[in-house]
Design goal:
It is a single chain. The chain is elongated, with a radius of gyration of 23 Å. It has a single domain, classed as Lipopolysaccharide (LPS) transport protein A like domain (lipopolysaccharide transport protein A fold). A hairpin with a 2-residue loop joins strand 4 and strand 5. By secondary structure, the chain is mainly β. A 6-stranded antiparallel barrel has the order 7-8-11-12-10-9. The protein has 1 helix and 19 strands. The chain is 2% helix and 52% strand.
Length: 298
Amino acid sequence: MKFILTTLAVLCAAPALAQNLDLGGTPGAPPQPIQITAAQGITWSQDAQTVTANGNAKAVRGDVTVLADQLVAHYRKKPGAAPASSSAGPTDALDQGGTELYELDAIGHVHIYTPTDNAWGDHAVYSMDSQVLVLTGAALKLTTPQDTITARDSIEYYSGSHKAIARGNALIVASDGRSIAADVITGYLASPTPAAAGAKPAATDALSGQGGQLQKVEAVGHVVIHTVSDTATGDTGVYLPPTGQARLGGNVHIIHGPNQLAGADALVNMKTGIATLLAGPGGQVSGTILPGSGGGAQ
């Protein structure tokens, strides 16, 4: 069973940042409908104002595809619009122009993907009003060409404020093996570049803004940074991907082979693997160095 939700064109009014995994549409692009299919049928509840697709449910909008055991589309009447006819079916309810979709829930074996990015979880909720996508459940995972992100509690995208948050045992692993782990990791994205008139909007991935990559990462709680040569730990951390520089604060330790250093702060170059330990006010750097074991931490 199939129907096309042409009224979803109204969702394009607000730009979306996490573009490739965002059903909100591409900034500057013409409106696109969402197509929903299901193996076990589609149910329309006029009282609850929902359209539910059951069994191998699939929603497609542009390059974004959402798979789940069940998809629930929540709609509402537009101000001043006439109510849908009692004899109308699901297609009519969402295609008459008097309604708008404000939330899409994906339940069970959720997989959201584009040609470049993939995300998995047990439950996903996308709010069109707040431009927020929240993935929860077991085995949360996001992959892009550059990174793999996992979390225990949730992976969230805030399109309007240009950020993504991984909560609970959050981990980002780059394609070259470098990684950042923490209780909570927040990624701040570059602001989208408006498309020129008549130009095709630039492609983006889930953690990149149009025309730029992830700009800053903030890590809080049990932070662990692995480079090609060192492991650095601390209470908090800030990483700037464009420069490769990271700064750790609070109970910092740097481990380089058998060598261990401790201090208040540390600067870590994720590209070179060189870590520099800094003493706090009135404090000092301490550590254990094995002669002949090689450098890396300073």
